[in-house]
Specification:
Blueprint lengths: L9 H25 L19 E6 L10 H14 L5 E6 L9 E7 L14 H25 L8 H9 L11 E7 L10 H4 L3 H5 L14 E6 L9 H15 L2 E4 L2
Parallel strand pairs: 1-2, 1-4, 4-5, 5-6
Antiparallel strand pairs: 2-3
Helix pairs in contact: 2-3
């Protein structure tokens, strides 16, 4: 007796075609989502400006830096640069004595991704490290060294620079991972308010004209690396206390690393 042949009905073929189409669309979606975002060639920053983080390094060179400071500055810069995620932005600025509310931007670029975050199976960590060094880190270090060795400035408008930073379009609350790193002796000195005239007196600052332009730094991490000086004009504890009150009022999370 001949065996009965099982024929595949229309529902089988419809299901098979549906599964094939689902697989094809899934493959296209995977490829689309795995494509790296378009970046600006001069900075390696995303064209859509969706930076995953932004660190601003504010270097106050109102007093000359000691060559011995280079070692810890290099370590600080290296740590901050490597902590950035891929496409994270790093900006180097210095206060501007001639125009206090226009601090100078010396460097602005985004990390192409460090070897520490590389996938050793699908990526070449050595090549990634070389690209990171050449495109991002070496120009950054060169800029910082020039800033440290630059001539001293007649004033130190730190608060004015911080206000301008808080007002930057790329440093608003919708920007993730905002961070400010201060490299300074923290001696605010400008026509708006000067520690040399009023001391590190936060109440006196609140009565000054400068307090009218307090920065808004809600959600921002602020770290101060206090530059060592042979002689301090004010007790360091008083200076740190002033800035702690200042950044607390601004809504930032503040810490001093020394």
């Amino acid at each position: 007796m001949a065996r009965r042949r099982h024929t595949r009905g229309p529902w089988f073929w419809r299901g098979a075609i549906g599964a094939m189409l689902t697989g094809v669309f899934g493959l296209f979606a995977l490829v689309a989502f795995s494509q790296p975002p378009a970046v600006m060639p001069e900075t390696s920053c995303r064209v859509d400006r969706k930076d995953p983080a932004h660190t601003i390094l504010l270097i106050d060179q109102s007093d000359p830096f000691n060559p011995n400071d280079m070692d810890w500055v290099h370590e600080l810069v290296n740590d901050e640069a490597r902590a950035l995620p891929k496409y994270g932005k790093l900006t180097v600025m210095v206060p501007n004595a001639a125009d206090p509310y226009s601090p100078k931007v010396l460097y602005a670029a985004c990390s192409p991704g460090s070897a520490a975050a590389a996938n050793p199976i699908t990526q070449n960590p050595k090549m990634i490290e070389q690209a990171w060094q050449k495109k991002f880190y070496q120009p950054l270090v060169g800029t910082v060294e020039e800033a440290l060795m630059d001539k001293e400035q007649p004033s130190s408008p730190l608060s004015e620079a911080l206000y301008t930073i808080s007002d930057r379009a790329d440093f608003q609350p919708q920007q993730a991972g905002r961070r400010v790193v201060l490299v300074s002796d923290l001696m605010q000195h400008s026509s708006g308010f000067s520690f040399y005239k009023m001391g590190a007196d936060y109440d006196a600052y609140l009565e000054s004209e400068l307090a009218e332009t307090k920065p808004k730094l809600e959600g921002v991490d602020v770290v101060a690396r206090v530059v060592p000086r042979q002689i301090y004009d004010l007790p360091v504890a008083d200076v740190k206390g002033f800035w702690r009150a200042y950044f607390t009022d601004a809504g930032a999370t503040y810490g001093s690393v020394n």
